[in-house]
Design a protein that fits this description.
With 730 residues, the chain is of the alpha/beta class. It contains 26 helices and 16 strands. Helix 8 (177-188) crosses helix 10 (225-242), helix 13 (325-336) packs across helix 25 (652-686) and helix 19 packs across helix 23 (592-614). The longest helix is centred in the N-terminal third of the chain and has 69 residues, at 39-107.
């Protein structure tokens, strides 16, 4: 910073940075070396050293004052906390006394009996005087006001603080003249032992909490001397920090006006600066320029609100959060009609007014974890809770909710933006712990999470949309359900590659996935502990030491028909893949079908492991794919805000529905976000901005900053037009 200080002994300015440079130069010289300088040069250096030394001493004194006051406040705060802990028991006794007295008064038929009991109550607490004293002590220190606790700590620091104020050549603005005058008066009376003093000065510069402590409400102009001193010292440190009080000659606490550049004496420097910044050399022109700049910014906001509708306003004209979860549910239903899947069993008509609205509100209530009762308390219009409960129980089953999710997935896939995030050819499967009540058969203790509940097992496509959700018990091997999400998927998004965490490295799963045409790409942990199998023992391999076994091809050949039977049963819906894998586990070592799938899986897994070892790009892509489902877990948890992370039901069907409802809400919010992002990007492109796939690939539909989760929920929304998902040509 280029600063200067005027030399009071000369009319020419002397820059402070130059004085500091001279002082540093002199400090590097010894007496003999500095004696070789010319007289005027030597004297200048010595004066610079004295100037710098004095300035540093003043800085240190102010720093000492500030640190002492900061320490006093910290200790007073600690004393306050200790006192609150100490009097907590006393406060509880006083509350108990009040409670007993109130009970005696309510039940008393004869007031003389009440008064006799009242005396006994006070006597048990040490008498009325003791109770009054305790109450007064607590009332004087009500709240968390630390200021009354400074007095005891101040005694040991008073002399030091008074000396510091006496040593410092303090100056102030006119507004703080009363502060310095009062300090000088109290410093002159530092030896006075009177507890109270009378002052006619104005103490309005003190904070209101201090004013209440220092003054005597019964005697105008009377102030408690010690408390007033403390208040003045705190006010002084605040004023020094604000620059309202300064110390002439100090480096860090001097008057800022002394460091202002003398533009009158150096017009060339001013002209150079204005030319570089392209600013006018006139105050009015400068203000006009800023006014025009601000007007443009305001005009752009107007366009964003009213022309491009990029910002919404509330009824008071204030910007609001753009989207609510209910708004996303209403819009996506109007675009896709996903509520058409709900209704009573069979072909019976819903027989309720505006069924779509009822189903949307029910989805919001259960998908966000609020439940019917809690949700209806926050709707802007009265909605009976029993109607939502009835719709959930009677009209909305797990399969119907999955079909609604399918509609959202299909519509989501029509947008160009998700293609920048993934091709839709791969998905990732992983589970996350969900707490439940302890008193049901489904609940189990999860070793890794250390809590009781179940696991929300989800499949998420590489373009971020959730494909399938399932609620499974804790303790069950997650790989058992790893293929269900792809096989039960009925949407137009048909991924064939499946990423998973280390639970997906089971040999039997590899074998079944291969037969089903699914490329399994799990994240391998401790791959060296897995056995690599060679095709034949007779093949000479220089790396033969890496392989721990040979494939039993005869077993695979002999069970070919068993493979076909199993796969066709799964494809025709006779059994599920999870049902098969539940039985093909480590406890089935004597099961020939298990041994057959295990042998087939050894082949596929070995080939994958060899690719995993040599291909760093593969390892990175698998990790990235597995991370997407973990990100979705956090996004879904953010939307399930009403349950505090717990499923509030012991019914197994309702537990499953809670997870699928949550997926429906998450997909609806993602679809709304993608629609909004696409619309904004299209407007940017129309305005001349270059919108390309490489840039928008960094976007994500898991944005939560624009979502309103709490407050009053609007139960109806105006229809928005069907969005155009096309963003790029071709």
């Amino acid at each position: 910073m280029f600063t200067l200080r005027r030399n009071h002994c000369s009319h020419s300015p002397v820059y402070e940075v130059k004085i500091i440079q001279w002082a540093e130069e002199a400090k590097r010289l010894n007496a003999a070396e500095i004696g070789e300088y010319r007289t005027h040069r030597r004297r200048t250096l010595l004066l610079a050293v004295l100037f710098d030394a004095r300035a540093r001493v003043l800085d240190d004194l102010v720093s000492m004052l500030t640190k002492v006051m900061r320490k006093l406040r910290r200790k007073a705060t600690d004393d306050l906390e200790a006192w609150l802990a100490q009097v907590r028991q006393t406060t509880e006794r006083l509350i108990g006394l009040l409670f007993d007295v109130a009970c005696d008064y309510r039940s008393a038929d004869d007031m003389s009996v009440f008064y006799s009991k009242l005396g006994e109550r006070f006597h048990a607490c040490g008498g009325a005087s003791t109770v009054i004293e305790q109450c007064e002590s607590r009332l004087k220190r009500r709240g968390r006001n630390w200021r009354p606790f400074v007095t005891r700590r101040y005694r040991n620091q008073r002399s030091l603080l008074m000396d510091l104020v006496s040593f410092l050549p303090l100056q102030s603005t006119q507004r703080h003249t009363a502060l310095l005058n009062t300090l000088s008066l109290l410093a002159a009376l530092r030896s006075d032992r009177a507890e109270w003093i009378r002052l006619d000065g104005d103490l309005s510069f003190l904070e209101k909490p201090w004013q209440a402590l220092v003054s005597d409400p019964d005697v105008p102009g009377a102030f408690h001397r010690r408390t007033l001193e403390i208040a003045l010292f705190f006010a002084l440190t605040d004023a020094l920090a604000a620059g309202d009080v300064w110390v002439p000659g100090s480096h860090n606490y001097g008057s800022y006006t002394e460091y202002l550049y003398p533009i009158e004496s150096d017009t060339k420097a001013v002209e150079k600066y204005l030319a570089e910044r392209q600013l006018p050399n006139d105050g009015k022109l400068f203000a006009d320029q800023l006014r025009e700049w601000l007007s443009q910014r305001c005009h752009w906001l107007e366009q964003a609100i009213f022309k491009y509708e990029m910002v919404q306003l509330d009824k008071d004209g204030q910007p609001i959060v753009p989207r609510t979860i209910l708004e996303a549910l209403y819009n996506t239903d109007r675009w896709t009609g996903w509520t058409r899947h709900f209704g009573p069993p069979g072909r019976i008509a819903p027989q309720i007014d505006n069924p779509s609205r009822r189903y949307i509100l029910t989805t919001f209530a259960y998908g966000c974890g609020l439940g019917a009762t809690q949700a209806t308390r926050h709707f802007d219009q009265p909605v009976p809770a029993h109607l939502l409960k009835f719709a959930n129980r009677r009209h909305m089953g797990t399969e119907e909710i999955q079909q609604a999710c399918r509609d959202l997935i299909d519509f989501y896939a029509q947008f160009d933006l998700p293609t920048c995030w993934g091709t839709g050819d791969s998905a990732a499967a992983d589970g996350t712990h969900i707490e439940t009540y302890d008193d049901n058969l489904f609940a189990a203790h999860h070793v890794r999470y250390g809590r009781t509940g179940g696991v929300a097992y989800r499949h998420v496509v590489d373009n971020y949309v959730a494909l399938f959700s399932h609620f499974i018990p804790c303790g069950v091997h997650e790989a058992t359900y790893i293929l269900d999400g792809l096989l039960k998927n009925t949407s137009s998004v048909r991924p064939t590659r499946l990423h998973a965490d280390s639970h997906g490295q089971s040999a039997a799963v590899f074998g079944l996935a291969y037969l089903l045409g699914i490329e399994l790409y799990p994240r391998i942990r401790n791959w060296r502990k897995l056995t690599l199998y060679r095709a034949n023992r007779g093949h000479g391999l220089r790396t033969g030491y890496l392989y721990g076994g040979t494939i039993d091809w005869d077993r695979i050949e002999s069970h070919w028909k068993d493979y076909l039977r199993t796969v066709l049963a799964i494809q025709h819906g006779t059994v599920t893949s999870s049902w098969i894998l539940t039985r093909l586990n480590s406890y089935s070592r004597n099961n020939s079908l298990y041994l057959a799938f295990q042998e087939l899986g050894r082949v596929i897994r070995t080939g994958y492991l060899l690719q995993w070892i040599q291909n760093a790009t593969l390892r990175e892509s698998v990790t990235a794919g597995a991370n997407k489902v973990e990100t979705f877990h956090r996004f879904a948890d953010h939307l399930r805000f009403g349950s505090d992370g717990q499923i509030k039901s012991n019914d197994l069907i309702e537990q499953e529905k809670a997870i699928v409802f949550n997926q429906l809400v998450a997909n609806a919010v993602m679809l709304q976000t993608v629609a909004d992002q696409t619309e904004l990007l299209r407007k940017l492109a129309d305005g001349g901005y270059d919108v390309n796939r490489e840039d928008v690939a960094y976007f994500s539909p898991y944005v939560t900053r624009h979502l309103k989760r709490f407050g009053q929920y609007q139960t109806s929304h105006d229809a928005e037009p069907l969005p155009n998902g096309k963003l790029f040509d071709g």
